[in-house]
Amino acid sequence: MIKLQTKVKVLCFAGLGEAIGKCVEIPVDSEISVSELRERLISTYPEHERSIRSCMIAVNHEYVTQETAIKTGDQIALIPPVSGG
Amino acid sequence: MKHVAVTQEEIDVRHLIEWVQDRNCGAVCTFMGTVREFTHGKRTLYLEYEAYQEMAEKMMEKIGDEVLEKFQCTKIAAVHRVGRLDIGEVAVAIAVSAPHRKDAFQGCRYAIDRIKEFVPIWKKEYGEDGSYWVGCNC
């Protein structure tokens, strides 16, 4: 779990990366789960709520569930619906 | 054995085929995903692919392992390209070898389906009316 008054860096890709930046910093003031981080992102970028909600979240290059706890130093990424191939 | 990569370079499909060939395999199956010009009557000029490189390679490694575990396949090589791709260029290529053709076909099909389902790579389509990220609500 992360400490008080810290910032979490979140990588963003595709249209979301173009809209809000490829790496955004979200201040958090307590221990935080993936679903809480998503809500913080939405309150920071309310105009992008729909696309943030459509994303999967990856922690340290793995898809994770909503309940996963974020730890200091984790690499967090918002993964919009993929379209490779 | 598996070989996966996400690269800016043009994909050398012949190299992938040679890499998977094996004296105990009687089948090599390949798949190439190429850039299509017309989709439902609309012209594409070119595509730009973006990847979350480290995660994409890790996911492709995982898919390679799944193919080797689930089917009687011997080797798999899978490469996805990123950056700008023009019409007809190869965006993704997969080669799978197996003792028998059924497994090679199944393994190859499974690999491309899984890549399209969850490897973090995105394409932006540039057409005559502008550009958009495919399949993305953003």
Distinctive features:
heterodimer, A: 85 residues, alpha+beta, Ubiquitin-like (UB roll), five-stranded mixed β-sheet, 27% helix, B: 138 residues, Aldehyde Oxidoreductase, domain 3, five-stranded antiparallel β-sheet, four-stranded mixed β-sheet, 3 helices, 9 strands, 32% helix, elongated, Beta-grasp_dom_sf (chain A), Mopterin_synth/thiamin_S_b (chain A), nucleotide binding (chain A), molybdenum cofactor biosynthesis (chain A)
Textual characterization of the structure:
Chain B: Belongs to the MoaE family. Chain A is an alpha+beta fold and 85 residues long. In chain A, 27% of the residues lie in helices and 27% in strands. Chain A has one domain: Ubiquitin-like (UB roll) (Roll), CATH 3.10.20.30. Chain A is built from 3 helices and 5 strands, in the order βαβααβββ. In chain A, strands 2-1-5-3-4 form a 5-stranded mixed sheet. In chain A, a hairpin with a 2-residue loop joins strand 3 (56-59) and strand 4. The model of chain A has no long low-confidence stretch (mean pLDDT 92). By secondary structure, chain B is an alpha+beta fold. Chain B has helices at 13-20, 53-70, 101-118, and strands at 2-7, 27-34, 38-39, 42-51, 75-81, 83-86, 90-98, 121-127, 130-133. In chain B, strands 3, 4, 6, 8 and 9 form a 5-stranded antiparallel sheet that branches. The termini of chain B are far apart.
CATH class of chain A: Alpha Beta
Quaternary: heterodimer
CATH H level of chain A: which superfamily? Beta-grasp domain
Give the helix tally of chain A: 3
- Class by alpha and beta content of chain B: alpha+beta
Q: Major beta sheet of chain A, specifics? A: 5 strands, mixed
How many distinct beta strands of chain A? 5
Subunit structure (chain B): Heterotetramer of 2 MoaD subunits and 2 MoaE subunits. Also stable as homodimer. The enzyme changes between these two forms during catalysis.
InterPro entries (chain B): MoaE_sf, Mopterin_biosynth_MoaE
Pathway (chain B): Cofactor biosynthesis; molybdopterin biosynthesis
Protein name (chain B): Molybdopterin synthase catalytic subunit
